[in-house]
From TrEMBL, chain A:
The lineage of its organism: Eukaryota, Viridiplantae, Streptophyta, Embryophyta, Tracheophyta. This is Cytochrome c biogenesis protein CcsA. The gene is ccsA. It is found in: Membrane; Plastid, Chloroplast thylakoid membrane. It is a multi-pass membrane protein. GO terms for molecular function: heme binding. Belongs to the CcmF/CycK/Ccl1/NrfE/CcsA family. GO terms for biological process: cytochrome complex assembly. One of its GO terms (cellular component) is chloroplast thylakoid membrane. Keywords: Chloroplast, Cytochrome c-type biogenesis, Membrane, Plastid, Thylakoid, Transmembrane, Transmembrane helix.
From TrEMBL, chain B:
It is a multi-pass membrane protein. Its main location: membrane. PANTHER family: CYTOCHROME C BIOGENESIS PROTEIN CCS1, CHLOROPLASTIC. It comes from the Eukaryota. This is ResB-like domain-containing protein. It is found in: Membrane. The chain crosses the membrane at residues 105-132, 173-192, 253-275. The keyword Transmembrane applies. The keyword Transmembrane applies.
Amino acid sequence: MIFSTLEHILTHISFSVVSIVITIHFLNLFLLVDEVVGLYDSSEKGMIVTFFCITGLLVTRWVYSGHFPLSDLYESLIFLSWGFSLIHMVSYFKLKIKKRKNNLSAITAPSAIFTQGFATSGLLTKMHQSAILAPALQSQWLMMHVSMMVLGYAALLCGSLLSVALLVITFRKAIKIIGKNNNLLNQSFSFGEIQYMNERSNVLLNTYFLSSKNYYRYQLTQQLDRWSYRIISLGFIFLTIGILSGAVWANEAWGSYWNWDPKETWAFITWTVFAIYLHTRTNKNFEGVNSALVASMGFLIIWICYFGVNLLGIGLHSYGSFTLTSN
Amino acid sequence: METLLNPSKTPFLFVPKTHFFKPSLLHPSFNPRPHTPFTRRPLSVAIICKLKTSQGRKNDGKNNNISKKILLSDSAPELSNEEGKAKAESGGGAWRVIRKLPRKVLSVLSNLPLAIGEMFTIAALMALGTAIDQGEAPEYYFQKYPEDNPVLGFFTWRWVLTLGFDHMFSSPIFLGTLILLGTSLMACTYTTQIPLVKVARRWSFLQSADSIRKQEFSDTLPRASVKDLGVILMGAGYEVFLKGPSLYAFKGLAGRFAPIGVHLAMLLIMGGATLSATGSFRGSVTVPQGLNFVMGDVLGPTGFLSTPTDAFNTEVHVNRFYMDYYDSGEVSQFHTDLSLFDMNGKELMRKTLSVNDPLRYGGITIYQTDWSFSALQILKDDEGPFNLAMAPLTVNGDKKLFGTFLPVGDTDSPNVKGISMLARDLQSIVLYDKQGKFAGVRRPNSKLPIEIDGTKIIIVDAIGSSGLDLKTDPGVPTVYAGFGALMLTTCISFLSHSQIWALQDGTTVFVGGKTNRAKAEFPDEMNYLLDQVPEIVESPISKQPGSIGA
């Protein structure tokens, strides 16, 4: 009884903190409030609180139900948002050591927020109860396979979003022409660039504003490109380990390591697309925009693999299925 | 400058072959030009080395060195021309083309855009394979992709059946693309990756400040010594090589070798999977509790390399099948107690299987995959026990339902009435009377009688049957080895190979470096290291007499 109330409390705390943080981020972006730095710090603290809340939530579920908290879609969504907040924490502390502003927080924080919000919202209420484990899932492999897969998805999603951001910034002029009325988008990106330029060089800003704007945009895209490559490489390693441990588990449980099950096949397709991404980066000519295009495709494919296949509800991975009608 | 005159420090150390020829090259006549860019030298040295070996050590005269260099470089093409002329008329042209063919095929196969295209094709075919239902009868496809109303305007059942999309993952198109990808992997490893390794392993020293400044990351330390830099780099985990004023350091060389390992691991997995597909045996059987079967009767081959073994003659006896339940009534686990006997009736092995815990014997593995309800044992009016066979009933969803029927009264009339019994699992049986009204629930082994329409029924036992899958697969060790290698090499290829060059020019040290993966963090790491290099306050010239004297 204690555990279920604790779980309830933690869920509500994390959801509220997450909503506050997102409000702060939007205020930062659109209203250009003067106390930017103070609010930025509090949003970072909010993300730290969220991280500990989600960790607590997962540990509580683990103790309460007796099995590792990754047996159905709701739990894997919580784990995914934990993965995002973990990546956010790591990049925050790594960049803090070097005294540089964390540009990646614009990607990792909202991802954690939206995933957590979706999971704890009213859409999936009937799955909040910790369910009992089907016989096929009662294995030690459950921990390794599913956790590696979900962490891999989190890292690859972050990396692909960074690539999408790179594409948007590179083609912002084209977008500007297309969407002249979309002042909000332009404002947000120019604000981001101004912040970036403040970081880099205060002296040059006033005198070389217009010509250095392109240079700083180039610097920003370079940094996005490199971070995206590193994070996607890390996510690729996790995805490889996840797929292979899943294959070994399938061999132990059902007698064959690859059954061309829809979920397995789509995981393999995701792996192939990111392998294409890593190979395009070996060639200097394809670096930059081309590889970012591949990574953006990867973003869509991960969502099909993670969510789309579960909607079908068939095959060996039917534990993750759910119906869209909320009860 | 001193290094060029000092024989023990000839700049030929980097090319591994040359240290065999060191004595012959310390010839006073050898006069390299002082400021040539480094890249040109190795070629000239190599040619001279080869000259020496081919001539034996006979001609050590001064003039012969230079003259031979000129002679042979002119004569070499002539020789091949003569050779070519001699053979050209007699169909030698075709022979040369055939000899060149493997090289040309290799260069075509190891083309990167081709490999990327192949990977895209495989991904698209797999996606198509999940969209189209696999393994159905042709009539299903006639119905789903009709010709008079094609999907997407052109996709009819003709496309599906002729291209083999109904069995996509074993169709010729898919397997052909996989084989092509495999050959591309092999070609790429041979032509591109292995030479890269050779290049990466060389210690290459940059001798001019310009080439150092052209690196991705470069910096200048005004008053420093290259030796201090070397010590600091060693402390940071780099392997440092110092030669006079120039320095070369690298870290993370494993990150260059690992991609080769990845390709080899993939080839291993593909080979193992091919072996599995062509050489394994599979079968599945549902055995009621108490019965037995022979393994060889159940297993069927999957490909042309499948050969049965002696273990196929083993008899398997199901001693007991039982299930565990949660408190809520859901099934938690199924167990089967099996005994293996050989043809003489001797018991070889006894084990209780459950879902994630298979039985392994003689290369054959038995998995618990399913269960069924075989029969219900009842006592009717204290007569019996009668075994009523239970039949599976179709229900929506994945829950199972079994039912049986006990006729009551006149069994010969066409409208036989009786007692129906339904069960979802082996735990409890639900009984219905002649009109179909609910009569009661009984658990087997409770010995509690139930009275329905004047008949007394006691449920004695629920006999389940175990669904077992048998398999023997020779490719599994290879595939597991490939899996392990792939996991390991993928992790290692995350390491970034960083190279740093430095040159001491007077009191200034020029530093340049590059890395292949961690490009975002490299400048910060370099700045951190360079900050630690101590600044020399006294001039090095005034220091020298002191050090020589001491």
